[in-house]
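Troubleshooting log. The previous structure file for this entry was overwritten by mistake, so regenerating from the original sequence record. Sequence copied from the archived sheet and checked twice against the printout by T.R.
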Amino acid sequence: MTAVLPLAAVIIVLLITWGISINSSAAQERERNTLGEMFSPPTSVPKCSLSRVCPPSHIALRIRSGAADIVGPTVCFDGKIIMSHALNNVGPGLNIAVINGEYNTQTSHKHSWTDILAHLKKIKRGMIVLVASFDDVTQKMTNEMREIFSEMGSTLISSVKRRDSWVFAGRAGTKIKSLFEKQAVNDEKNNIYGGWPEMVEVGGCFPRVFSD
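Regenerated output below.
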């Protein structure tokens, strides 16, 4: 019995020491996690409803055309809605947002086709141009207008016809083929809005910097 008691005491001391060690390690781990949460950068959230966060060299955008002649188009750039029915800055025809070097925006829609042509001619080379159709963009669309959009990188503008849905993002005067363009053809057999086709949209990460 005399020999057993010291052994039991040793076991108790070892258990206590082990318990203190475990608690100390857990406390240190909690402290590291807390410090990590305090000093780690906040998690980025995708902008413009994209499925991923754009890299620093690119900027998020999403363009949705109008639906028939009822619902106007929506344009999102860098996480901000810059054109929409709710903002009351869209209208039938071409809806255009021009992004300058500081990523400020200038918006316009079809008050008169003469104004639109003059506006397109004033856009400086390299500026980002976002376009969404609403109702019909071809009533007075000229070959000169189509050529300007082609020089921005559009490959579909030459085929856009009456009441087609069309969205586009490109750079003025660069002639670099855009990856951000989509068209739905007006076809009575396949239209989902009576005399109009489905709405179309494009979205993704657009390069911030233009280089020749």
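The CA atoms of residues 29 and 175 lie 56 Å apart. Archived copy saved in two places this time.
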